[in-house]
Specification:
Elements lengths: L1 E9 L9 E8 L5 E7 H6 L4 H12 L4 H20 L10 E9 L5 H19 L7 H12 L1
Parallel strand pairs: 2-4
Antiparallel strand pairs: 1-4, 2-3
């Protein structure tokens, strides 16, 4: 199973989301999506917290084998630990952390896998791209002013 893991730190969360970790997991080829939110301290300090346990059951119900479940949850825990312990990524207890897991089972056929990977990339691109372009005439006039 291939595991895609991405995260987003919200530095100005809603009051109810302060200090939480939200985990969202989706398995390509399946229609179900998993989402759970847990206080960050509980997620980090407790080996068996509610959201880890619920993720485990979600993966079991989806037919994921024990070895892949262990890999998914281990990578999630290590990544959250890395994000919350590192000072370089600007995470603090006043933030909200959202972790997204995209799981690609080995048994997806090549056509289906390619399509679903493209869909995941497009969704990720759509969610993160917010680029605003200037009209070309302003760009040209700015350049002309610089040349003068």
């Amino acid at each position: 199973m291939e595991i895609g893991l991405d995260y987003e730190i919200d530095h100005d969360p809603e009051p109810d989301d302060v200090g939480t970790i939200r985990v969202t997991a989706r398995i390509f080829g399946k229609s179900e999506t998993f989402t759970a939110s847990t206080p960050a301290k509980e997620f980090i300090d407790d080996e068996v917290c509610r959201s880890k346990e619920e993720l485990n059951y979600f993966l079991i119900d989806a037919g994921v084998n024990d070895s892949d479940i262990f890999d998914v949850i281990s990578k999630l825990i290590f990544r959250v630990d890395d994000i919350t312990c590192s000072t370089s990524n600007e995470y603090s207890p006043e933030c909200a952390l959202e972790v997204k897991l995209d799981l690609f089972p080995d048994d997806l056929d090549d056509d289906q896998e390619g399509t679903q990977i493209e869909e995941a990339v497009q969704v990720s691109f759509d969610q993160t791209s917010n680029i605003r372009f200037r009209p070309a005439n302003k760009l040209v006039s700015l350049r002309m002013e610089e040349d003068s």
